[in-house]
């Protein structure tokens, strides 16, 4: 029985959880538009970092919703263990700075064991091949018998070792997934309060009269209906009416046209996707407090962001260098359970189960990701400045980055009805992590394979 | 134990099934944009046609997915049994014309039984009240003992009869739901081929070059990606790219602005709703071959049309007459499993699991529904004429109406890439069929001259509203029409004039050089 060929896969074990309820209260309302945190996965995954073969098949889906160690994953992350081993001090410091609970020692140990076991397996295979070769020639019956016996023993040992190897690789992947992305050198080290202000635009408007919050305005101007939606659908759903409908369409139309001018390709996406895609993007559709709605009777889920179906377009692909960069502005409805989000930061339109969003997504060469990160944040700042908003752009500190982000800029706008700033967008540079997840590669002119980084921006 | 107060409810036992695979093949591709057909429900429902009280509570949700007769429904339709009984010949003819499998005899029989049982129950209650009254006075001990005994017996009989009554009402509702709406006298009787042409606009464009279908155009112009979507989501999903995104937004923007001019209120809606709302609108979320996606671990579903959440806005309400008519143009994404739809009519954008749609919905007084039906179809015809489409409006024959529709106009547009007409919109007058299930009523502003029974003291009795729905724009089907009809020999596609301002002035979708 040969080693199962498995699709390169991955799941950075992250969940959509609101940063809000994990952080101490400040004057800034962090809405956790799309935060990811690490959580050890209980499902073992197999890593295929050493196989040169690109063609793989899916492991039969035996994933169950309970965390059984025996459950085989559908796919694996192409994690660069050699690099981790060779840079272990930096990786350790990074893990600490990010408050991650990744266990680097365990990873390195398992990796060593795995490498050794792999060598042993290969050695046994070679011996068995030799035996098979010898048996092709003319032999004495006793010699033949001896070889048959030897072949059988080798085969039995191999089967055992190969099973062990599979388990070891699963375990290694399981532990290794917790390891967060490396961090940009300019990112401030520390918690939320250490985040640096990259820019502040405008100032809070001075009102000469008592002001209303958006809920009151929505009622008074007959723009938003939460009450009917609570009957029809449940809490955190709403209807938009009258000018609010036109406003939503205007926002999306205008945003699309502005961003298209910068060379982004407009896109609409499926809002139902296979759950494996959701996982590859780093979310746990079936975990407790999952943010993801699943469809009954299928392996499908609703997307929480267009990032998921857009990332999926190019999965398991090799792109030509000349095709890069790929720049998309993707529009979709987004669905989130908001499980676990409670308290004041759920009022009205702040936290809803369904909303429209335009998302920018960039696939580029590694050396370009930093400049695209700057391009994305610049586009956002320009958009919000044009709309006359008062906002600040934050360079998020290490403990506030999600696992995939190499660097993250959040924009928080002033919301007078609430008397605080609230997050309206973020821009993440995912560097190579998502590239691992979706197995994107770029073939350089020189023919060397390198993983591409991704830059993401939400609007 | 009193009669359980139950919420006005119902579920017409219908499913979203495509008319296509139920009808013989003709030169018209009936895409069954939104058809409903009858199917007996296995779950009994309780009817509340006789209770004057409007305030009710939900029956605890004990619905299970297997059809157990003991399962209590969450709500009931306010079906007018007296009217059915008094007009039974007309109802029977209607059932036959519509090829419905409703069993009128069974309904009438159950109704009789129910009425009689109800009388018996009321009689026993009155007796028990009398006994209780007598016991308030001064009595001989033996007399008191006798009355106590009598009271006990009456109570036991009542409990039994009341349980029977509940079961009977459930059974009655279960059978009665199959009964379709009555039919407009002008509707042709018969199958699909009997549908009458109300109007035909334009003529098929003559092409001087070999034409492509929308799939080919979508590939060549880099507008539609089905392949990636098949990997990411499955078949019948797609990405729109480049000008197609602008085209979708232009279609919706333009449609919205045109319809708003006619006094329709724009609306966006939740796309996740409780399954009971879906049922009240006449769909079976949990039947075999259901068109409805359900959400795991909840009682929620994805909507297949904005008609559902819009109908839900005013459910269990009494509107003022002065508030009517309510006219909405609602925009939403729609999700359909398309279970059971197979064959040639599933190609490309014809039949997809997710699409954008603008839907018109009207709530009005009964006497106005006919004129609103005309208004809706006129709006649709004007929209499609403005876009330069060649289409015909059909007055659908009786066998082709869904259960809720009193009358239905379908518009089928010429799709040259397929060489046939394909349904792009549908306008239905559902009269009071949905409102009896959703519980939408209105209170007339003045008492009528001849005195029918009054509701609350000095207030005129409430009546059920009429509801209508009509597709203003189903984006994928429109895209098929526009791409295929407006293609040029050089592979480009012309944008119809009304849409250009909504697309930043683009006049042409040109092939891109790679």
TrEMBL record, chain A:
Gene of this entry: SRS
GO molecular function, one term: serine-tRNA ligase activity
E.C. number(s) listed in UniProt: 6.1.1.11
Keywords annotated in UniProt: Aminoacyl-tRNA synthetase, ATP-binding, Coiled coil, Ligase, Nucleotide-binding
Keyword set includes ATP-binding: yes
Species of provenance: Arabidopsis thaliana (Mouse-ear cress)
Top-level taxon of origin: Eukaryota
Coiled-coil annotated residue ranges, if any: 107-178
Residue stretches making up the Ubiquitin-like domain: 91-163
Residues annotated as domain Aminoacyl-transfer RNA synthetases class-II family profile: 213-424
PROSITE patterns on file: AA_TRNA_LIGASE_II, UBIQUITIN_2
Enzyme class: ligase
Single biological process term from Gene Ontology: seryl-tRNA aminoacylation
Stored Pfam families: Seryl_tRNA_N, tRNA-synt_2b
Protein name: serine--tRNA ligase
Signal peptide range: none
